[in-house]
Amino acid sequence: MTTIGVSRRSFLKMSGAVGGALCLGFVLSEGGRRAEAAEAKNAIPSPNAFVRIEKDGGVTIVSNKSEMGQGIYTSLAMLIAEELECDWNRIKVVSAPAAPIYVHTAFHIQITGGSTSTLSSYDQYRKIGAAARDMLISAAARRWRVPVSQCRAENSRVFNNANGASLGYGELTEAAGKLPVPDTVELKPRHRWKLLGTRVHRVDGDEKLDGRAQFAMDVRLPGMLTALVKRCPSYGGKPKGFNADAARAVPGVKDVFAIGNGVAVLADGFWPAKKARDLLEVEWDRGANAELDSARQRADYRARAAKPGQVYRSEGDAQAALAGAAKKLEAWYEVPYLSHSPMEPLNCVVWLKPGSCEIWSGTQSQTIDAGMAASMSGLKPEQVTLHTTLLGGGFGRRAVPVGSDWLKEAMEVAKHHGQGLPIRLMWTRDDDLAGAYYRPMWLDRVRGGIDASGRPAAWLQTGVGQSIIAGTPFAPMMIKNGIDAVSVEGTDDMPYALPAVSLDLHTPEIPLPVLWWRSVGHSHSAFSKESYIDELARLARQDPVAYRLALMGKAPREQAVLREAARMAGWGRKLPKGHGLGAAVHTSFGSHVAQVVEVSVKGKELKVVHVWCAVDCGVVVNPDQVAAQMEGGIMFGLSAALFGEITFKDGEVEQKNFDGYPIVRMFQAPKVDVSIVASEEAPGGTGEPAVPVVAPALANAIHAASGQRRRELPLSRHGYQMV
After folding, report:
1. Secretion signal: which residues (predicted)?
2. Which pLDDT belongs to residue 579?
């Protein structure tokens, strides 16, 4: 096998310095950072790091993004394959190692998140494919001694247009690999696309169906031991002492010892480790969260919201406008802590040996995790090898900005055991729900009113919630004047024409870590914004869809998706008794999504009948994946809106497993229709934008069906039974 691209020496020079000085043990000189940034911005990345062509013509594409079910392996492969002009049926995709050449083009570390994978790789991967194509064509032209202009690439072959001769890519790869990477390439215009924009079978689909797919939990290594950790019931607590006599007596148990945040049990398999952990007797220092109580926290948030916070958006004289409004409305919107709950619980494998550390992990943040492992082990960055496996879901939980907590535990166990054996660290579902790093609990107090014509006169909003970014390496970039940009996303740029606006924020400091959860700040901002605009429309006795459209004159893409979702749902049609339609529209991660939800309400019996979703995500790489992400996002958001809630009593999480933290079951799932609005704009994200829209559309539909306005999530708080 020969790789196409620059020489090995040049590649090592490009990859030798590790990017991102995030206090993670990865150090790069300022000059090196500037040079690397300039190179990344101006140069075509070395194709040999991203494309490998076998002698038989098979093509391997290296993905610098983690595959966690969103289909990015397929999208990235399509971007390269379109320009490379290769046989789609001969393609396979592998995960990139942790290395500087694979850093995110915007974040400058190797990470997957923020629904930015396609956006950040769209031009990059197309240019890589085009560069490899041009190098193959040049190699063929040299062999035939003809001008490059006389040759063309098609279906993994280069053709001589003059005489019809052809050479397969496998025959040309060695010669092409000796050529310089072109400084510029010509990308195919959209009307010549053959693959992009079509519905392509996922490259990881078959192996997931037949069980060949390898997740971190599937890794098996000779002599591997399994570790489970018993953690304090209140997050952040530490062990003061423990009795492990009964645990050590369990057959298969190799060791029991304290680590930073708990007591680790090491055994020759999961079940002996689990049984032994259950037998441990631990005395805890319960720490700063020992008395954490959700009821008291809610009361504290309401007391804070009653007072003005730090202003982050102010237009006009909102107080005067409110005083002069023809009708006034005050509403409080509340959402709870939420768990990410990926299907595959957190886990990894660490093999720490003298002079090296090898890791297998389903991580979203390779640079951060590899850096943390290097720092903890005392090794140089180049002595750490991180293999990114497939992820059984992530939703942000596998992108901890200060390093994966489960990897940290695994490193502690490996260092303590010190016998050079591979260690598999596993969490159970109970561990996952109690393991903190939640979507923040949030409260929004909104005051406003309408004028005599029914249009909004004033909008005053006070938000209360923890900062996700505070205390992380991203804080200097994302917290300005005390305002976390993530906390206010979705409200600071509302698309509605509002003559007077005052938005402010309280950011309480609570020793409970919070993290980006699928759609992040939009998950609470869309709920308050789209519920309140619906309430204003009702207060004005106007149709909620028409009301929104009239206020979005400067937001044509939002208008277009709302019109399309309303058209799909037959907005305005006569409905059966007890049925209602609710609408919402929201922009996040570069995409615009509108949804209409139909519900049936009979007393406390609630059925979500149908969801119609329209999305404008710019240029579409694979329509199947866009539709799948909308459908998955709707179910994810619906589960949270109906059931999702993490609550604390005496410092402990009250939800222990899926019996207390349900997700939507098949019989409860509505029918979903998705319409993709054609667009020539740059691609936006699709992994998250469907999530924040469904909760307000659902609450608005319940009001339409029953007259009951639900401002607190989850809806199970109100006694609804899903049917």
Report:
1. none
2. 98
Confidence band (pLDDT; 50, 70, 90) for 287? very high
Interacting residues of 89 by C-beta distance below 8 A, sequence separation 6+: none
CA distance 680 to 703: 37
271: Cβ contacts below 8 Å, ≥ 6 apart: none
Residue 287 to residue 179: CA distance in whole angstroms: 61
Q: Is 463 helix (H, G, I), strand (E, B) or coil?
A: strand
pLDDT for 25: 26
Helix, strand or coil for residue 440? coil
Residue type, 90: R
Q: What's the mean pLDDT in 301-308?
A: 97
User: Angle, to 10 degrees, between the axis of helix 522-539 and the axis of helix 691-706?
Assistant: 30
Round to whole Å and give the CA distance between 385 and 363.
13
Average pLDDT of the chain, as a whole number: 93
Chain CA centroid to CA 429, Å:
20
401 upstream amide cis, omega within 30 of 0? no
Mean pLDDT computed over 112-122:
95
pLDDT at 3: 32
Distances in Å between the Cα of 663 and the Cα atoms of 342, 397, 635, 659, 669 are 11, 17, 9, 9, 10
Please give the full DSSP string across 256-323, using - where no structure is assigned. EEEETTEEEEEESSHHHHHHHHHH-EEEEE-GGGTT--HHHHHHHHHHHHTS--EEEEEES-HHHHHH
Stretch 80-87: mean pLDDT? 98
pLDDT value for 391: 98
**Tokens, residue 472:** 């992380």
Question: Does position 596 have pLDDT exceeding 70, yes or no?
Answer: yes
HSE-CB at 268 with a 13 A cutoff on CA atoms is 7
Determine which helix (DSSP H) or strand (DSSP E) holds 721, and give its type and residue range.
strand 721-722
Contact between 20 and 26 (Cβ < 8 Å)? yes
Lowest mean pLDDT among 34-48, 421-435, 671-685: 34-48
Give the CB-side neighbour count of residue 565, counting CA atoms within 13 A: 36
579-588 and 327-335 beta bridge pairing: unpaired
Q: Comparing C-alpha atoms, which of 626, 571, 619, 622 is closest to residue 595? A: 571
- Measured at the CA of 79, the angle between CA 76 and CA 85, to 5 degrees, comes to 130
469 confidence band (pLDDT: 50, 70, 90):
very high
Per DSSP (E only), the strands in 324-430 are: 327-335, 347-353, 356-361, 384-388, 423-426
- Mean pLDDT, rounded, for 483-490: 97
pLDDT band at 46 (very low <50, low <70, confident <90, very high): confident
Rg (CA), the chain: 27
Contact 329, 535 (CB under 8 A): yes
What tokens were used for 124? Answer: 């990059």
Dihedral sign, Cα of residue 91, residue 96, residue 99, residue 102: positive
Q: What is the distance between the alpha carbons of residues 594 and 335, in angstroms, rounded to a whole number?
A: 21
